[in-house]
Structures are given as structure tokens and as C-alpha cells.
Amino acid sequence: MSISAALNAAQSGLTAASRAAQTVSSNVANALTPGYGVREVSVSSADLGGVSVDAVTRRSDIALVTERRAADASLAGASTLLSGLESVRDAVGTADAEGSVGARLGDLEARLLEAASRPDSAQRLSAAVGAAGAFVDTLNAAGRTIQEARLTADRGIDAAVGQLNEGLGRIAELNDRIVRLTATGNDANALIDQRHRLVDEISDIVPLKQIERENGRVALITGTGRLLLDGDPVPVTFSGTNGMSAGAALGAPLSGLAVGDRAVDMTNPRSQMAGGRLEALFALRDTVLLAAQARLDTLAFEVGTRFQDAGLGDAAGLFTEAGAPLGATSAPGLAQRLSLSAAVDPGKGGAAWRLRDGLGAGAPGLSGDGTRLSALAETLGRPATPAGTALGTGALSLVALGDALVGAETAAAYGVETDLSRARGRSEALTEAELATGVNTDAEMQKLMQIEQSYAANARVIQVAGSLIDRILEI
Amino acid sequence: MSIPTIGDLSQSYVSRLSMSRLGRELTTLGREVTSGLTADVAAHMNGDTAPLAAVERGLDTVSAYQTAIRETRVVAGAAQLSLERAQTRIGDVAADAMKVAGGNLSVSLDTVAAAARQGFSGMVSDLGTSAGGVRLFAGAATDGPALRPAEEIMADLAAATWDLGTADEVDAAIEAYFADGGPFDTNDYLGATQSRAPVRVGPGDAVDFAPRADATEIRAGLKALARIAVLDAGALSGNQSERMALLSSGIEDAVTAGEGLIALQARGGAVEERLELAATRAAAERSGLETARLDMIAIDPFEAATRLEQSQVQLESLYAVTARLSRMSLSDYMR
Q1: Nearest residue on chain B to A357, judged by CA atoms?
Q2: For chain A, what is the largest distance between any 2 Cα atoms, rounded to a whole number of angstroms?
Q3: CB contact, 8 Å: A98 with chain B?
């Protein structure tokens, strides 16, 4: 064994130790960096003695990461869906709230009953007209909320698609740079961290699976198997709308989604872009909120027609469709257009006594005649089978229909709330598991102590070898 | 061999999660303990809030019915009182008239006639009473008077009878005055010919007690008093035997009219009883609904308080553990 070989071996030991120390310091510095994969130095014994540093590897449990990304996507989907449904639920009110659509109708019935008891009281009549106006306002506002939520969903899709395309483009660029660095034998781990974060950023839009290719390149496919990136990104296309009408539906005139040159059917729960925020936004825009609008329109139509057909000898009912009598069938968005008859609406020059004396009456009639008021109150309480089926097919009174609507919106939001808390639990557990694979400062410190020892030992070997050479030279 | 370690971020993530969860729980429980009601109605009722809505609507309607019952009771009670007073007036006059007819000298014919005239005025003003702004006997025209002032009616009656010679002629004149479509209807009754509408006091339950001043029973009462009262207004003056004859024929009328008014009062009494019943039913329904409402959304205060205590202890332990863990670091021991 030659002394120079010993010197070489010790030299390689020093190099390995400093490399390891560098890795430890990088790990400690990034202990709180999200998406940072712990670096580990892998070493092996060198052919001619000594130690060689093979590579600095980045620790990552890709299966766990994929699971967590899927969980994040379904969490984002559920919370998007919930926020849409909650806005509708809050607009129509809840069963225990004073201002819910059902409570407004109940209030109208109570005010009419009270007015029928004292038809001569101007306050009672105004209170009844006020209750009818409050109902119309609540209904209109709820309809507008739905329409706005659908527009927001459409804009959300546009933004998400933009984000997805941009993210895929940047990942493709990073892929190229990683390949170049790896091919030239350099450390590409910092870029891999960056790519990891980029994939994280877009995987709540649609869950992404990462497939390893040669030289550190990755391909991305969606959770349900649509290839989005392999070398070049596949363009995802969507065209947002500028305004949303109540009757707008998928295809007329709302845009669908296409990946590459293929259209994707987002109404299918197993579609190739399902599982994330994008699916939830499409569901809100094309099904869930449309159903809510249909429920609201059914109520509006029933309220309008039952007062119109109450047999009180008026040309139009207490409620009109933007001033005109209601048609024979309901058109989408009726809830937004339903309005209080101008004959009684104080804001449109109407007078409350017409509630008692007939909507077409020219002058106040007998002050004690509560017949019409009683009949109006009865209209609210009389069960009948609704023309539309959105609120069930049973014979229900108008007040009960209002409550059925409130119940339906609460139930819809509650169902998603349960899904959301499940998705949140899963996402939290998996995030915790993924973070557990991150940097542990204590372990790094322990490693640092070993490195210190190893460095000192190698240095000692060099010192001894040096003194051996000195001794030989002294001869 | 690599020994699995736990990343630093994982520990802080878990404690942050637990802290926010416990914080939320404490807020919710605090609200529930102070209000006694659940903070999340939908979750409390497993997403089906229809029964609660039905109860809330029931409460709305019951309170409207209660208002209607209260007001109808006031109106019906006042009408009963007016009818009772009218009936007493007629009864008094009839009793006095009988004494005169029976030859009792303690009362004179003139006194009875004057009393009848006063009774007539009194009855007309009774019929003009209003309760809480509602004219009771004017039909649906609750904002105007029911009858002309008594003096004007009396003046018309006097004008129609002053030049008649016999009791039968006066009788016929008064009959004609109060007949359907006669001067009483056209001149004296100022209310509406349409009655006040029945008032709904419960689901499918409406009460109807709105006698008008031109109702048969009331008209008969006015007529009976008028027949004797015209004697005070100068009819048949000087002809004592005809005056006596008119008085005698008026007695029978007054008794019948009194009976008619009693029958009307009995109808009012029945309506008052139904109102009483409706009020009891509404009160029972209200308390039933309120109990049902509480059953649906109230929480067990003891359970909530216990859980609040538990969450607080948990949060305190979490603080202690977090503080302890953050002190446990190898770096601290390496110097």
C-alpha cells in the first residue's frame, strides 16, 4: 500500500464530507420550504480506493404526492361547488331565517289574514303590500344571485383553463432545462423542486399524475387518463362568455371544453378532465345552478299564476311578469322578472287599498269589505299541484312550495358540505404524510456531527501520511 | 439503512390544523351554550329542514289568527253590548206601556211616550257605536255612520203621522216607513247594504257576526219604539182613546221585537263562544309548535357545556405540547 494512495483516499473522504456538509446545510436552510425534497448524498467505494460521491438525490414519494394531488383536487372541487351552492342558499334563506323565501310567503299570508280582520286599516293594507314586495325582492335577488354565480363560474373556467395552459407550458420548459442539466451531469434538483411546485399549483384544477421519462423529464396525465403533457403541452381550449342570461345553456351559447382537438364532455363524472375545480365549475354552470334556477322559476310561476287564476275578477294577478300578465308556460329567469302589480306598488304610483277593493278599482270601496283579502290569503294556503316538477309533484300550497325551495337549497349545500369535510380530512392526512418526508432538522444535525467526525478523521489521515512522507524525506 | 424521520413542517402543520379546528369548535360551542340553540341547523337536522320550516310557518299563521281573534272578539263584544242595551230600552218601554194599558195610574201615557222617544234616540246612538275604529252596524262601510241622527228620523216620522186621525192609520204609516225599500231604507240607513265579510280565525274556520242596522230584528226594535214615540211627537194629539189604542197595539210589537233582539244576541253569544274556542285552540297550537321548534333546534346545554370544557382542556394541552416540542431540538444541545 502506498502512501500516495492513502493520501488520495483521505482526500476523497474530505471531498465527500464537504459535499455532505453542503447538502446538510441546504436541507437545514430549506427546512421550512414547501415542495423541497430532502437531498441525500449517495456514496460508494471508489475503484482505486477512497470514496466517490455518486449523486445528490432528491427524496420524493411520488405515489404519495399523486394521492395528495388527487385529494387536493377533489377538495378544491368540493369547496368551489359549495361556495356556489352557499351563495344560492344564502340568497333564498334558511328555514330558521326571517327573510327566507318561504318565510316571506308565510309573512304575506299572515299580513293578509290580519288585513282581512281589519280591512279598514291602512297600516294593515300597507303591511300586506310591503310583505308582497319583500317576497318579490327576495325572489328577484335570489334569481340574480344564481345568474351571477353562473357567470362567475364561466369566468372561473376561463381563468382555470388559462392557468392550466400557462402552467403546462412552463412545466414543458422546465422539463427541457432539467434534461439539459442532467445530460451534462449537473445537479437539476432545484429545478425539479420548482417543477414539483408548478405541478402542485395546477393539479387542483384537474388532478395530475406524473410519469417519469428519460433524463428526468416527466409526462403529465389527468387522474382519468387524458395526456396533457409529453414533450409538448396539449392545448386546452375554452371561450368565456361576456354576459350570462338565465336561459343560457351549454352549447347555446355557452362554450364547452376541448383538449387538443377533442371536445370533452364535462357533464360526465368520469370525463377525462374530471376530479377537480374545473369539473366543479362546469357542474355549477351547466347543471347545479340551472337546477336551482328551475326551482326558483317554478315557484315564481306558481305564485304568479295562482294569484292570476284566483278568480278575483282582476285583469292581471297581484304578481306580474315585468308588468304584463304571466304566460301559459314559464320561461327561464321568471324569478328575476316577477314583479308586484303596479296597481298596489307604492313605488309605481299604486295604492294599498286596491288590495282590498280590486286591482282595477278606480276609487276606494267599502272600508270593511275583507272578502278579497281573505281570498288572497286563502290563495297562499290552498294546496295545488304545481305545473313544473322541480319542487316535487305533490299538491302543495304556495307557502309550502316556498319552504320546499328553501329546504332543497339547504339540502343541496349540506350534501356538498359533507363531501367537503371528507375531502378536507383526506387532503389533510395526505399533506401531513407528505410533509413528514421533508427535512427533519434533528436528523440533519446528527448527520452533521458524523460528517464533522469523518472530516476530522480524514484530515488526521492526511496529517499522518504527510508526516510519514516527511520522515522518509528526512532520511 | 435509512431510518424514517418526520419532517419539521409536518409537526407544525398538524399543530396548526388542530389549533384552528379547536378554535372553531370553541367558537361554535360558545355560541351554542349561550343561545341554547344549535349553531348549524342543517347539520343538526341532517340536511332536511322542511319540518322546521313548516313549524315556523305555522307560528306565523297562528299569530295572525290570534290577532284576528282578538280583534273580532272586541268587535263582537261591543255589538253584543249595543244589542243588549237596545233590548233593555225596548223592554222598559214595553213594561211601562203595559202598566198604562192596564190602568195603572202611577205612569201616564205621555211619560211612556216620552220614554219611548228617548229610548228611540238611545237605540239609534247605540247603533252608531264603533269599536276600535269600526262602525259596528254600518255593514261593510265601517268608516261612516249607520243611521241618520235620531232627531231627523223622528222629525220625518212626525211629518208622516201628524195629520192622521186613527191609530190604525198611524200604525200603517209607521209600517210603511220601516218596510223594505221604505223611507227608512232610502233615507235613514246610511251604511252599506253589504255586510262585513266573515273573518278567518283559524284554518278553514271563519266567524260571521256582523248585524247591520237595517237587519230585520233591529228594524223591528226601532219600529216598536217609533210607534210609541210618535205619540210624543204630536201624533193623534187630543184624541186620547186613539192614542191609547196605538199604545196598546205597540206593546205586542215591542215584546216581539225584544224577543227578536234576544235571538240576535244569542247568535252573537254563539259566535263569541266559537271565538273563545278558536283562541284556546290557537294558544294550544302555538305552544305545541313552539315546543316542536325547540325540540328540533335546541341542544342539550349540559352536553354542550361539557364539550366546551373538553375543548378548552384540549386546546390548553395542545399549547403545552407545542411549547415542549419546540424546545426539543438537537441544535440546542450541540454547543
Answers
A1: B140
A2: 139
A3: no
